[in-house]
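Materials and Methods. Structural model of Zn-ribbon domain-containing OB-fold protein. The 142-residue sequence of Zn-ribbon domain-containing OB-fold protein from Phycicoccus avicenniae was retrieved and submitted for structure prediction as follows.
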Amino acid sequence: MSDPARPSKPGPTPNPESAPFWDGLAEGVVRVQQCDACGRRQHYARSVCSQCWSEDLTWVEVAGTGRVHTWTVVHRAGHPAWAGDTPYAVLVVELDAGPRLVTAHEGDLDALAVGMPVRLLARPRGETHVVVAVTTTEKEPS
Ligand SMILES: [Zn+2]
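The predicted structure was written out as tokens:
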């Protein structure tokens, strides 16, 4: 049952450029763009390679594993829907596949450390999914 005093969390708004990433999450995979000209992988989705400006990009599936690059702990939510979740961490994860991405975190805030291994998981939200990072030492929810 929804609580009218507590709004639901808004989800992402996929567009044609980013849809393969969001569709991948719904399928349980992580996809990033890979440049056909120079091989660089990038996230978030763009119309050109961020290194060589080639427009020849291909979506590739990558392992949803990486390491904590940095994080911040939110004590005062920027949106009322997250007010009950504070404090929570927002991570920058460096994927083993190369690109970095910003993601929510599920787990023990006190255990966070730079270089800590994490695994990305998809969580349903509205008509799409969002990505969260969990530490690989914690049991993954089924
Ligand atoms: Zn390139």
